Amino acid sequence: MENKRRFSQLLLPLYEELLEEENLETALAGSLEILVHTLKCEAGVIWLLDRSTGRLVPMFQVGPMDLSNFSVELGSTAESFVVKTGEPVCVAEPSADARFQGTFLEDNGLSVRGMICVPLKDLTQVVGCLQLANKKDGSAFDADELLLCQRLAALAALTIDEKGLVVNAGEKKDVLIRMRGIIKEFPSGESVIRVLKGIDLDIYRGEFLVILGESGCGKTTLVNLIGGMDQLTAGQIEVEGRDLSHPTEKELTAYRRDYLGFVFQSYNLMPNLTALENVQFIADIARDPMSAAEAIRKVGLTDRADHFPAMLSGGQQQRVSIARAFVKRPKIIFADEPTAALDYQTSVEVLRVFEEIVQDQGTSVVMITHNPEIAKMANRVIKLKDGMIAGIKVNLQPLHAEELVW
């Protein structure tokens, strides 16, 4: 009875999340987070059916796995079996349950001790499934928890149908940077502080990736490792299939020069150089740059090209720093809180430039931000917590910069 009362109280915030949040992806991801947190699970996934391929795609996940670049054939795993049959599965002991056919989570490193998987079924068809795995206290999932998941899944399916969400995952994405088991420790007196605790993550070519998380969760440390500004303690980093976990100085110099661009909260412009000269300074050391004048034009500052930083507004200075980052045609740009010091309208102008970089040049952008609204324009959102990946959300319909409101 106590469980039923508690779950009845939980349904209200879940309903509000799904019905009141205008952005459907945010609503689904938020509902999954609430459910996983309330039932104290190790992992949770919302899978949606891509009808163009007939395959199941993991769109929203809570837990340390990065499943973003995978899809599953119907009937081949427990998740896809639930979607194919439309029947829920609640597994207390996988090894002793005939309905348990193996799960994609186990194929990706999570030992499944217990699982709930229920279909997302609207009035006419199954559109996906909701999956939870492993209660943290080791107990089994019960009938009340299964019923709660079924009610949420039914509402989620109806909301998906009402708002017209169409899944089209497209071809498997090209991995630019692959990270596995990333650990970073810093000395602290006679002991060490472990800031990153085993990160597995891929960054795809031409994607806009946002990393969210509270201060101290490891966002900047992770970007510093990927950007070659710090050395990892353990794990592996591959760039286009080449191991750069412990690069030589020569390899590191070439990597930074040919692959990377950086944009920071503080603009870091050279005060004695004009906007054009600041960009030209980087172009001069690049292997195959665009012209500095073209980079300035792309950020809309041709009429300010001969102005010194002190003569520019904060937003204009940040756009110069963005031009400086992409003038050398990098494969990836890292942006650490690039709008934190800017007002709303100026932030939108800066974000529009990043949007155009991804769309027009195919450059990957990895942005650290505290602002969850900015995450709505990303292709994927990575949430870090306490040095680990806490969740991943795919935006099927990313917003444009001018559509953001905060």
Q: Quick summary of this structure?
A:
With 406 residues, the protein is α+β, with helices and mostly antiparallel strands.
Walk me through what this model shows.
The chain is an alpha+beta fold and 406 residues long. It has two domains: 2-163, GAF domain (Beta-Lactamase, 2-Layer Sandwich); 196-403, P-loop containing nucleotide triphosphate hydrolases (Rossmann fold), CATH 3.40.50. The protein is built from eleven helices and 16 strands. The protein has helices at residues 2-20, 24-39, 78-85, 104-107, 143-163, 219-226, 249-259, 275-283, 292-298, 314-326, 344-361, and strands spanning 41-50, 55-62, 72-73, 89-91, 115-121, 126-135, 175-188, 191-204, 208-212, 234-239, 242-243, 260-264, 332-336, 364-368, 380-385, 388-394. Strands 1, 2, 3, 4, 5, 6, 9, 12, 13, 14, 15 and 16 form a twelve-stranded mixed β-sheet that branches. A hairpin with a 2-residue loop joins β10 (234-239) and β11. The protein is globular. The relative contact order is 0.12.
